Amino acid sequence: MSDMKALAQLMKELEDQLVVCMRCGMCQSVCPLYDQTGRESDVARGKLALLDGLMHEMFRDPEGVYERLNKCLLCGSCAANCPSGVSVLEIFMKARAILTGYMDLPPAKKLVLRGMLAHPELFDRMAEWGARFQKIFTRPVNAVVGTSCARVISPLLGRRHFKNLAETPFHKMVPALKTRPGKSGVRAAFYVGCLIDKIFPHIAQAVIDVLTHHEVGIVLPENQACCGIPAVSSGDMKTFRSLLEHNLNRFNPGEFDYLVTACATCTSTIKEVWPVMTEAAGNGDKGLLQRVEKFAEKTMDINAFMVNIIGLASPTPGIGDNTKNPPEVITYHDPCHLKKALGISVEPRTMIKANPNYRLKEMTSSDWCCGMGGSFNLQYYGISSTIGRQKRDNIVATGCSSVATGCPACMLQIADALSRAGDHVAVRHPVEIYAEQLKRT
Amino acid sequence: MLDPALIKEFKNIVGAENVFTDDADLLTYSYDAAVVKPVVPALVIRPKTSEALGRSVKVCGENGLPLTVRGAGTNLSGGTVPTAREGVVILTNGLKRILEINEADMYAVVQPGVVTAQFAAAAQAKGLFYPPDPGSQAVSTLGGNVAENAGGLRGLKYGVTSDYVMGLKFFDTNGEIVKTGAKTVKCATGYNLTGLLVGSEGTLGVFDEITLKLIPLPAHRKAMVAVFNQIIKASEAVAAIIAARIIPCTLEFMDNFTIRAVESYSRVGLPTDASALLLIEVDGHPAMVEEDAIKVEEICRQQGATDIRVAKDDAERDKVWTARRSALSALAKLKPTLVLEDATVPRSRIPEMVQAMQDIAAKYRLEIGTFGHAGDGNLHPTILTDKRNTEEWERVEAAIAAIFDEALAMGGTLSGEHGTGIAKSCFLEKETSPATILYSRAVKAALDPRNILNPGKIIGG
Fold first, then answer.
1. Can you give the pTM of this predicted structure?
2. Strand A258-261 relative to strand A299-301: parallel, antiparallel, unpaired?
């Protein structure tokens, strides 16, 4: 391990961003983690103070800082509510990269990120094997939510209720696609994302159905890789850069006007994280940064694309007929990566309301984080599931029979919380809700 | 490093998971929202019961460990920055139960860690009103509000935290329980220790339970914005409204610098060419509200307001207060360091004070945005700077001293609502007298002979 001075020097890169925090403490009111623990090192102000402390060599405990920095949902609630406009997530991601470079990745993360995620074809094959063998180890527990749990006590799965890997991932159902635009005149590339590909392929199918119905030309390149957020949040710039270049090479920017995804996390990663982290990972490669920025600019959440580009409104005249009377009550959870990162909250609701068979009933605190936070859920399952339980309580209080959300990661977390409580509430994506009626007409 | 036997004792009292000893945890309790030097404590504990809180104070007392009580750590005068030698920080955010809201007798009993806005909402759900609304109310704790005697936007009509504290239970320096005040409207027994403890910044005792007065919710309210093309006219309008014996619940001032910052930040439609704005709200019985609103409008016009916009509905009213509440955020985005002062003058002197701020900004070549509670004489001159620029920082310190001098010369005070803490303790003698400091120190020495209760705050030492 190199000396603290060298680390302090690296941290100086963040100085201009760190000084913006005036320690007002307003982040305490919105941090889902602090809400549970009441510990200052869990909230943004505390973490920023720790980074500041390392930079000023106020103490010598980079491991302690690394551990606390990683104990974060990266939900961005603090940044969205920050009076001074501190770029909290950008600072945290860059700091994770610096500290990971300084201390090296833990072996388990290295294996997952560099051994598997960085190699998309291998990752796909392993997931296929997993799908074949999972029934041996797991059993279904809740038919409405569609979850399973471990058959035997497993340290990896714990008490989780999870969605199984799909028997056929989306890339096997539809490996590639290229269609010409109809009267919409718009060409959209479709970035699927790992969770949708491997766990929720029917959401990807719904995206294809909706785009086709509205006569949008579709470009679906084969062999897409992970967006890289697991690597970025682990500070693994090497894996991130390799995934970034792999994905850029899959998509030919001349072939599409917009790039859509149905995953809130993928959308915010491509739009927000790619440009800032390319600077950190790209070693001054200006050409790469320009490509990334163009790509990011074209990227849109599917709901926002349908409403703002295609002009979908609710109710949509002539689409769908009311076959359920009374309509089914549905509620909507705002993924942090849609609302707080990208300001998208109206559009998914418009998509849901466009199906007359559903009545949208808002839950309390619909934009309070569900507690998933990607690898946070693996490392801190206890806190994560307590936060998930709050979300479940708010969902169930609406008396709904379905909950929709625009992020497959939130869907996993919410499914776990509902299933463990024994609730019969289906977890859906707004694009599925909208697509449902297209099949009927 | 504290004696391991003591750490073990604290672990027995509050549970091992509520005792923080790692360097990385300790560092996160070395600061608050004031621009003062951070000090890392030796230990942080988080009691979750009243009993654990009392026993923790007792252990500190027996061992002469200086203790600093911390709620949300949002105070602006350094009151929650711990002490250098073996300082123990006691967190109150594990003590956050509202013990009682009594509708019949209109009072509430709370633990010190209850968050201000959550308490106000709980009272409102029962048709009752807890008026003090400091800027940090979304996170600040009631214990901290009482310790700092926090104010807010409604001070002019409804007063500040001290006007709502009916009684206290607190631990003295030995961890013994002291009771003062009552749940009755009147109480004439014993010394008024409540009065002594409110605003004492943790130097005289550790709050265990707080009894707070609640009042009926006002039935009606009306908000308006008055636009002025001369700053002096706006401040004269404030004095004229008070002179006409109208007490709005809120009467806020914003200078042009602040108006432009707010508008570019939140786009609420403020006139960026205005020299100053007054944001006014009257509340109470509907007939009286209508009458007062008309009078306020007339006065503003007489004083030269070029435009008056009355909020037609709740949505427009919310817009007015969103604009006001975003003032600090908007200014904070302009420069890395923000020094928020709260020197306060008798309200009739507001025109002179506003002028003095302009002169000081020019003299020290600093960017100062002035906004705040003009109706109660409590302006917030906000200096924008970068503390890394040492040459400018010296001018900032000189400007702060000049602001204090101006306020005191007008018969005002160093702090309307932020407290003395560390940041203003060296200026206290200017406002009072040497004998006042000695008297205060004698009180402190008598009640806390080992000087363990938040030492160094208010009276130095």
1. 0.92
2. parallel
